């Protein structure tokens, strides 16, 4: 075991006490997660209430399921993303873990949803990647806030 000097302990303690400008990435990730969750919920509600809205029949999807099932997946995923975004604003570690996992699942779901709306799904996948990057690289700084 190594003995740490008092200055080493205080510098580590203040490293999170004085967050840098990178905290903005966490706020960005939380806002994007909130928006992404709302988008997923809207997309899910559309799929639940009107199966004819999407241009591709369910046989054209990567995973062969009906749009009612996709609607529930999107709606539940959207709710999880919104809740994780709220927790991320509070600097909670569980929200970081859930946020990364939910963004990963969101990206995978949108890969399967590409035939229905390719541009929309590509935008959602890009936002998922940015969210994962922001949370994993700069997530610890939000804890001090």
Detailed description of the structure:
- The protein has one domain.
- The protein has helices spanning 6-17, 23-49, 67-89, 93-112, 118-143.
- It is 74% helix and 0% strand.
- It is mainly alpha-helical and 145 residues long.
- It is elongated and about 50 Å long.
- The mean pLDDT is 78.
Summarize the topology:
Blueprint (H helix, E strand, L loop, with lengths): L5 H12 L5 H27 L17 H23 L3 H20 L5 H26 L2
Largest sheet: none
Terminal residue distance:
31 Å
Strand content: under 5%
Question: What oligomeric state is this?
Answer: single chain
- The level of helicity is over 70%
Per DSSP E runs of 2 or more residues, the count of β-strands stands at 0
- Please, how many helices? 5
Written as H for each helix and E for each strand, in order along the chain, the element string is HHHHH
Shape: elongated
Class based on secondary structure composition and strand pairing: mainly alpha
Rg is 19 Å
**Could you say how many structural domains there are in total?**
1
State the gist of this model:
The protein has helices at 6-17, 23-49, 67-89, 93-112, 118-143. The protein is mostly helical.
What features would you highlight for this structure?
145 residues; mainly alpha; 5 helices; elongated
